[in-house]
Amino acid sequence: MALPRPASDITFSQATERDHLAHPTVNTTSNPLPDAKTLYKRKIFQHRKTPPLHFSTGGRLSSWPAYASAQVILQNRKPCSTTNKTGARDKAALNISKPRYLEQLENYLRKELLLLDMKKDNSEELKLQPYREIFEFFIEDFKTYKPLLSSIKNAYEVTLAHFREKIRSLEPLKAMLVNVSEDCNEKILAIRAEERYEIKMLKKEKINLLKLIDKKNEEKISLQTQVTKLRKTLAEEYLHFLNERDARRILVADLNELRYQREDMSLAQSPDVWGEDPVKLTLALKMARQDLTRTQKELNTMKANFGDVVPRRDFEMEEKKNKELFEMVENLRSDFQDIRKEYDMLLQVHMTIVRDRDEFSRDLQEIQRTSTPRPNWSKCEDVVSGGQERWQFLSQGKSSDQLVNVLLEEIGSGLLRERETFQGLKEKTSTLARFFLDYLKKRFGDASAMDWSYTIFENVKLFHSSEVMKQFHDVLMGKVDENVYLGQRELVSYLLKELTNSDSPNEGNLTLDQFSMVLKNAFPLKTDEQIQELLEVAEVQLEGIPRDVHYRFLFVEDELGASGPFIHKLWEQAENEKKAYLLDLEIELGPNRAAETTPERLRHALISIDPSLDEQTLDNYLSQAFQTPIAELEPEQSQRQDVLLTHLQAGAIKRMGPRELEPAS
Q: Residue range 361-370: average pLDDT?
């Protein structure tokens, strides 16, 4: 195959003809520039001409050595010289000069780049224009390679135009992401502001309570000081009165002695006394003195025993004050404990909000990273069997992720129709995964059992949007306990039984009030908002409730075993109630999810948040949490708190009664 003719094969006449061209024609139809750029280009073209070609003396284009091409335009570094041991090659390179046409092109490119205004927004596109013009000179001057160079230029121009359009299409998405990010930041700042305000108010209330406690303590200290001072004053008064008593006793004794002496003297001087018996008088005087001495001793004993006793009225007043102060201190202590508990609860709520905020932030980052333009789902109408009507029925009210699942199911349903199916038997005595594998081995043999299991498992994944298939897949993978499915069926059967019992004529109809009353009686723990949600979903499913509720239509399943919106809402509320139940349990256990928890501590936490739990249900919850039979559960056995909550989330648990039991009458 012959090689293409090089540029040096152009004849001298062809090169001379190009030298006489004043203004070369530039082909820009493949990538038209904006008006401003076009005007700028025309202005430049008015002041320049096509650089003339430089020819060799032989009439052909001068060929510059290939190794001299290291001198690139607008490079600041010095070219590296390649030398051999003799240095002959460097000398040859220094003797060879550039072609004049190449120097003219380099000078033209350098001048054009210096004339550009690099401060504009489209500076990169303006910078590309001189290079485009140089390339067009080559295309126009080298006729032999013009088709190839034109195709190369057009390919690059088309690619650049494609990327410009793609950038323009992504600009609205960038603005939307900026708006979403700003909204999320505003919400986060609002939540932080509310938290700071609440914490500030709690701190102020705490400081006020501490000040009140300090004030009461100061009053108590003041009262104790007054009591001490009164006791000291009482002791001083007691000593004073004791001294007064002794002095009075001495004075009374002196007075009695003087009176006795005066009586003796008067008896001795009185003429009437001589008629009395002196012995009798002496004896009477002696007995009187003995009585006086005994009375004086009794008086002294009484004063000694009851001298420091306060009056009963003062004692009762002081006791009453002391009791009031004690009650006040107890009330303050109780208030402080309540405030401390409330603060701990608020702290846990704050931690939960912070964790949710972090999750939302991660979700936002993931959305920003993976957000793509919305696909055109109308293209699937020709692919899905049934055409446009069936596709509209399948895609109504579904998100993009759900539509992908629908497409996978439609693709997989064609494969399933070509394969053999089988009916399961009701003889399961172990877990569903073990029973499933044993059944396949029994039905198809050990060699084909694994092939069948993989085939069925992959086809189950195709129908992931079907609730029955999704539950079957989750139970096989161990994500959900089989009791969850049984609990959902029991919940539906229980509600249907309650509605049937209220339907005395057994006609399948109930009034709206009767239907609402049955829901409230069947689910006493549901709030009025939840009951109203069930009524609204039932109204939508029954396409309006004029007078009577045909409740049996709410429990009808389609051909794939999928339940209606009413049953889905009932299951959704049960799942939300379970999440709230586990959140209360997490708060009761503490904020540290990595802490080790024993069975006894978990038992106390469950009883604290759900006092109506019976022993059998409580043992089932403990066995589910620790994944161990209750008979083999050791008291010292422990497990991480987050692991226990994950195990309980996978099981069928629910609240058995209100958190606070009503006091018995």
A: 78
Q: Which range among 41-45, 326-330, 482-486 has the greatest average pLDDT?
A: 326-330
- For residues 224-232, average pLDDT: 91
> 409 vs 399, 412, 619, 649, CA distance in Å?
15, 5, 41, 29
Q: pTM to 2 decimals?
A: 0.38
- Whether the CB-CB separation of 188 and 357 falls below 8 Å is answered with yes
Residue-wise pLDDT for 137-172, tens only, equals: 888 888 888 899 899 989 988 998 898 898 888 888
Q: Residues 6 or more apart from 587 whose CB is under 8 A from it?
A: 345, 348, 352
**Which residues lie closer than 8 Å to 499 by C-beta, 6 or more apart?**
510, 515, 518, 551
Tokens of 609: 């948040």
More confident residue, 44 or 13: 44
The DSSP code sequence of 369-380 is: HH--PPP-GGGG
Q: Residue 55 forms beta bridges with which residues? A: 61
Three-class DSSP category at 510:
strand
Collect contacts of 656-661 with beta carbons under 8 A, ≥24 apart.
Answer: 656/610, 656/612, 656/613, 656/614, 656/617, 657/525, 657/610, 657/611, 657/612, 657/613, 658/525, 658/612, 659/584, 659/609, 659/610, 659/611, 660/611, 661/611, 661/612
Secondary structure of 527-569 as H, E, C letters:
CHHHHHHHHHHHHHHCCCCCCEECHHHHHCCCCCCCCCHHHHH
| φ/ψ (deg, to 5) at 548 | -105, 155
Q: Are 93 and 66 within 8 A, CB to CB?
A: no
Considering only CA atoms, give the Rg of the chain. Answer: 53
Distance from C-alpha of 61 to C-alpha of 15, rounded to nearest angstrom: 8
Closest CA to 569 of 523, 620, 514: 523
SS3 51: coil
Distance, CA of 644 to CA of 641 (rounded, Å): 5
What's the DSSP call for residue 611? T
Tokens of 340: 């401390």
- Count other Cβ atoms within 10 Å, centred on residue 265: 10
pLDDT in the model for residue 510: 87
Residue with tokens 């009701």: 426
Cα–Cα distance, 237 to 307 (Å, whole number): 10
Instruction: Give the N- to C-terminal CA distance of the chain in Å, as an integer.
Output: 110
Q: Hey, what's the torsion of the CAs at 227, 230, 232, 236, to 10 degrees? A: -160
The amino acid at 92: A
CA dist., res. 191 & res. 38, Å (int): 53
Give the three-class secondary structure for 397. coil
CB atoms within 10 A of CB 242: 14
Tell me the backbone φ, ψ of residue 598, rounded to 5 degrees.
Answer: -95, 165
Q: How far is CA 160 from CA 31, 128, 136, 187, 582, in A?
A: 9, 11, 17, 40, 56
Q: Does 452 or 241 have the greater pLDDT score?
A: 241
pLDDT in tens, 466-518: 666 777 777 777 777 777 878 888 888 888 889 888 888 888 888 888 888 98
How far is the C-alpha of 202 from the C-alpha of 347, rounded, in Å? 11
Beta bridge partners of 61: 55
Contact 510, 503 (CB under 8 A): yes
Q: What local confidence, expressed as pLDDT, does residue 508 receive?
A: 81
